[in-house]
Amino acid sequence: MRKSLIFILLAAVLLGVFGCSVTGSAEKMIVKYDIELARVRKASDINQRYQAPVADTTMGIARYAYEDDLFRSIWSADESGWELSLYNKSEETLTIDWDEAAYMDVDKIGRGVLASSTKYSERNNPQTPTVIARRGNITESLFSKDHVYQSTTGVWAKRPLFPIDFSEAQRYKDKTVSLIIPFNVSGLTAQYEFVFNIKNVSQVPSTSNPWQIYLLDRTLGVSF
Predict the structure, then answer these.
(1) What 3-state class would DSSP assign to 2?
(2) What is the predicted pLDDT for the residue at 26?
(3) Does residue 45 fall inside a structural domain?
(4) Do residues 66 and 56 touch, judged by C-beta distance below 8 A?
(5) Do the domain assignments include residue 11?
(6) Number of domains in the chain
(7) Which residues pair with 118 in a beta bridge?
(8) pLDDT of 36-83, one tens digit each?
């Protein structure tokens, strides 16, 4: 018990140090990944050719649009996950079971997908499916289940999908990852594969670092 208390106090001190180092007026360099939605296809039809999404700059940020007769989607992605806007073009209710979705990392290892409606602490529990009414739309944030963990501070946190040390991160340029998502309409399911390409990796100045809890835990020797 005494050792645990000492460890927690040490973590709190280090978190304060990390917090001061990344939230002060001085800018620090952090790693950012430029990721594009490169192609899409129905994963259940191996004979179907991939379709190329189109860039969407209506919001002044890097987003990519893909649509077919069933839905229209707009994506953005980086080391912190995916942001998705989805519009149901059909006259039927569209359902997505996130427990059946998969994230394929750069090594083609499949991992579970976590929707924003699911608490980090409940990542291993069944998730509530997303239901989109006819002609309706939703916005959703997605992440890898395997990249959520309980920090030494006791809080649940995310770790980046890719390395955030620049020397290592540069090796990820031109690598691909994908999301496989099942869309169900009227009892029929179509699986779509969304393939994302890491276009570039760069360092940018910032007065804050979204990964300070992860960096703290790494400093304390937590194994990921």
Answers:
(1) helix
(2) 76
(3) yes
(4) no
(5) no
(6) 1
(7) none
(8) 999 998 866 656 666 678 887 666 678 999 999 999 999 999 999 999
Separation CA 61–CA 99 (nearest Å): 29
Q: Give the helix/strand (H/E) hosting 217.
A: helix 212-219
* Structural tokens at position 148: 């959520």
Domain containing residue 122? 26-206
pLDDT in tens, 9-18: 444 444 454 4
3 state SS for 53-120: CEEECCCCCCEEEEECCCEEEEEEEECCEEEEEEEECCCCCEEECHHHCEEECCCCCEEEEEECCCCH
Q: Cβ–Cβ contacts within 10 Å for residue 40, how many?
A: 22
> Does 30 score more than 50 pLDDT?
yes
The C-alpha atoms of residue 98 and residue 131 are separated, in whole angstroms, by: 11
In a domain, 44, yes or no: yes
Statement: residue 3 has pLDDT above 60? no
The verdict on residue 220 lying in a domain is no
- pLDDT > 70 fraction of the chain, expressed in percent and rounded: 83
Copy the structure tokens of residue 36: 């594009």
Residue with tokens 């490169």: 38
Residue with structure tokens 């208390």? Answer: 5
Instruction: Identify the H or E element spanning 179.
Output: strand 176-185
Query: Long-range contact list for 193-196, CB < 8 A, 24+ apart?
Result: 193/40, 193/41, 193/42, 193/43, 194/37, 194/40, 194/66, 194/75, 195/37, 195/38, 195/39, 195/40, 195/50, 196/35, 196/36, 196/37, 196/38, 196/77
